[in-house]
Write a structure and sequence with these properties.
Layout: H1 6-9, E1 13-23, E2 29-37, E3 46-47, E4 59-60, H2 62-70, E5 75-81, E6 99-108
Antiparallel strand pairs: 1-2, 1-6, 3-4, 5-6
Bound molecules: zinc ion (ZN).
Length: 115
């Protein structure tokens, strides 16, 4: 699927920063990381699932970012659950359900008409 560049899809965005970490079975946080997306990057905002065996998994932040940018919000936080399949033998039976917590920050271009 073609999403084009961030700068094309959302010209008003200067930078998107994502802080995230995964949660283990005991809801302990681990693998904390930060990602930054700039206007020249592809506007396909997705993080891979951490579960190695996971099939068709991942965490999609496209809708979250789109909504946030539309509303002019600078920060959005929440959690996502992987809806991929646990492993090849369990396709159609067991979902992966791996969890991710995130905070997405958006920096908008400065308004040229502003002081
Ligand atoms: Zn997964």
């Amino acid at each position: 699927m073609a999403y084009g560049a961030i700068g094309k899809r959302w010209p008003m965005v200067e930078q998107l920063t994502l802080e995230f970490h995964y949660l283990d079975d005991n809801f302990r946080e681990f693998a904390k990381a930060t990602l930054a997306w700039y206007p020249e990057h592809s506007a396909f905002l997705e993080i891979p699932c951490r579960e190695r065996e996971c099939v068709n998994g991942g965490f999609d932040l496209n809708d979250i970012a789109a909504k946030m940018i539309r509303q002019g919000e600078m920060e959005s936080a929440g959690s996502l659950t992987c809806m991929g399949w646990q492993d090849r033998e369990r396709i159609g039976k067991h979902r992966c359900l791996y969890k991710l917590k995130y905070t997405l920050h958006c920096e908008f271009q400065e308004d040229e008409s502003g002081g």
